[in-house]
Amino acid sequence: MNKTAESLAAAVAPIPDGAALMIGGFGSSGIPFGLIDALLEQGATGLTVISNNAGAGETGIAKLLKAGRVAKVICSYPRTPGSIWFEARYEAGEIELEVVPQGTLAERIRTAGAGLGGFLTPTAYGTLLAKGKETRIIDGRGYVLEAPLHADFALIRAEGGDRWGNLHFHATARNFNPVMAMAAKHSIAEVRSLQDTPLDPETVVTPGIFVQTVVEYGERP
Amino acid sequence: MTAQGLNRLEDAQLAARVAQDIPDGSYVNLGIGKPTHVSGYVPDGREVIYHSENGLLGVGPTPPEGAEDRELIDASKRFVTAAQGASYFEQSDSFAMMRGGHIDIAVLGAYQVAENGDLANWATLDDSFPPAVGGAMDLVVGVPSIFIMMRHVNRDGSPKLLKRCSYPLTGLGVVNRVYTDLAVLDVTKDGFRLVELTPGNSLDAVQAVTEARIHS
Q: What value of ipTM does the predicted structure carry?
């Protein structure tokens, strides 16, 4: 078994127009910048981007937004310092936005990866973000039924990996990367260091079964 | 009515006041903005573990310039360090800590707090502004003690402590205590109850800039 891709371009080649795409990262940490740049070059458009934030400055997801490749954003916190391209596209009515509480976003992604049909959470009960959703009272407390969130592809960032797709992470760059790897049909991991030898099984955070493609991108932001 | 003429705590004094109520051994989540300063004022001798929802339990001090790890940040996206005894984890574990009742105290900012404990701190009524919720709704349903740290009134003089919130809610009946520049108030089944006034202020003067009734 060898899940290694020879280049970033080869890794993102199968992503079609209109794909639902999970992109790891929180703030500037744990974002697969190399894969995003390769995707921009590849040209896929009409994308649904599922990520915690909607990019900042001129890098990462902001590049995809600037180039007009994004049709819809599903995230918890699109408005961050420097999120100028998100704001420009949103204000112009060029992208659809679905705001999801961060924990609900993580759990919807995890639920998809775990093969469940949804979950009940007290988060957002009685608020605008629960509008139109099924609710239930359990032991006197209100819960909202949330659906799993699937994706065609995930672009994730890891510190180290091996040819089996096993991954480990660095500091807070872990964030959404492990759950997104579980949830997408095809997960592509950009790793800072691709090892010739297998990772120590005790240190594997994301088991290789959740990863379809691994590609080395040595730069750390 | 404005808060002019009343004695106001400065931001640093307010952070220090909140810090007095963080017990030794607590797990604490500090919200984005002013609440992040609370950790600088926890009295010596107390060990408090700070949770950052992006996946760090044990937020340490800001690193010296030039020594930052660009992949080690807190929820405000500032560079931080990992304290002794810290751990890293992924998002669904992080939010299990929050929703699952494992974090003891959250200190958050607010646009509005109502006398029934309703909190509004994620969206205003301005539709041109894209909404952003982050982890606020998850925190308030799962953390047993929700402390709010905010100015008592808006800059235009309009009240923030209300009978009912007019902004979209973050959570219903979730606030336990409010620390403002003018007073500390508990949320009880009867509404706001005065804990203490910033020295020099009378209850009548603070009540005059508060929409909801303050019970003494």
A: 0.95
Number of alpha carbons in the 13 Å side-chain half-sphere of residue A54: 34
Selected residue of B78, B137, B172 to mutate for chain A interface (largest A Cβ count, 10 A): B137
Among all residues of chain B, which has the CA nearest to that of A120? B99
Which CATH number fits the domain that encloses residue B64? 3.40.1080.10
Q: What is the pLDDT of residues B26-41, one digit of tens each?
A: 999 999 888 999 999 9
CB B27 within 8 A of CB B57: yes
CA distance A159 to B8: 48
Q: Exposure of B200 by Cβ count < 10 A (0-12 exposed, 13-18 middle, 19+ buried)?
A: exposed
Torsions phi, psi for A85 (to 5 deg) = -75, -35
Mapping DSSP to helix (H, G, I), strand (E, B) and coil, where does residue A207 land? coil
CA pair distance A150, A47, nearest whole angstrom: 14
- In CATH, which of 3.40.1080.10, 3.30.470.20, 3.10.290.10, 3.10.20.30 is domain A8-115+149-216? 3.40.1080.10
The predicted-structure confidence for B89-126, as pLDDT tens digits, reads as follows: 999 999 999 999 999 999 999 999 999 999 999 988 88
Question: Strand ranges (DSSP E) for chain B?
Answer: 27-30, 49-52, 56-60, 81-88, 105-108, 112-114, 119-120, 145-150, 161-162, 177-180, 183-188, 191-197, 214-215
Distance CA A110, CA A2 (A): 26
Give a yes or no: residue B59 inside a domain. yes
Q: How far is A33 from chain B (nearest CA, A)?
A: 13
